[in-house]
Amino acid sequence: MNTIYALSLLIVGLISFSYCDVHDKPEACKTPDQWEGNFYSYDSIKRIRILGKISYDAKNQRERIHQVFVLPHKNQTYDMLYLYHKKMLLVNNLVSNSCSKVSLTRPWTHFGVVKNSKYFGSNYLGAEEMEEDSLKIQTWKDEFVDNNGNHVFHVSTWTHKNCLPVFDNYITTDSSLHTMYMDITPGIEDESVFEPSSICDESETD
Ligand SMILES: *[C@@H]1O[C@H](CO)[C@@H](O)[C@H](O)[C@H]1NC(C)=O
Questions:
Q1: Distance between CA 89 and CA 64 in Å, rounded?
Q2: Does the keyword Signal apply (predicted)?
Q3: Domain 34-194 -> CATH class
Q4: What is the pTM of this model?
């Protein structure tokens, strides 16, 4: 077993023991129906950083995710539009200015704690005693096998009250992707965020 992988499992294990608060187990939660926010991801094994923005709309089963992959020589920027009711994913590569339409076969799932997750406990970010500087969070763990047959460990942390995403971590043998979610706002500021860009309108389905 790879050392970093072993280390991350150990750390996850320690967190679970030190913060377990089983008397206060919340329900597996779902995020609100519509929100927008920024995220920062890094893969500590693959050494990739991603800066992103997400618009999430469970009411109409659609998501828009803008991602900048920060790479040493040339960044790559993708604008992805997931239209589940049309079973379609539009991937707009903003560097090459090309769009691909991909059929989206997986069903819509609400963003939130995955079914059959194990509750890790609740704790506070910041200081519990200083209300204006504290955030109560809940952490959950699940494991699954991905489409490529990799065994994935997933740990996710959500706000206690509204189930907004705070952090998540997907760990396989050759990757450990951490994501931090920030500046979440309720609702969708501008519905046109879910309209395909004109470049995508002209492209054929792959
Ligand atoms: C890539 O994006 C980052 C973050 O926006 C920026 O600081 C950096 O200068 C960009 N790199 C290149 C090569 O354009």
A1: 10
A2: yes
A3: mainly beta
A4: 0.83
